[in-house]
Design a protein that fits this description.
Blueprint lengths: L15 H4 L7 H14 L16 H7 L7
Length: 70
């Protein structure tokens, strides 16, 4: 993944194709992230992504520089 930021959280714009570009995020995990957003609304902080089943603190550390809620 390049230095680009993926706007995945607040605006609900990232799709599976974009999410799987994140380190450690496969198709199934991306589907869980999208489902979480649909059911709970926009993420209010990047840390909230750890509420998605399978997103551990370690995985969060790997992807946090590529996600944003702005």
């Amino acid at each position: 993944l390049a230095d680009s930021c993926i706007w995945v959280l607040r605006d609900n714009s990232a799709d599976t194709e974009q999410l799987v570009k994140l380190k450690g995020i496969g198709e199934k995990m991306s589907e869980r992230i999208i489902k979480y957003r649909q059911e709970n609304g926009p993420f209010m902080s990047i840390e909230e992504i750890m509420k998605v089943s399978g997103i551990s603190e370690k995985k969060f550390e790997d992807i946090k520089e590529y996600i944003s809620v702005e």
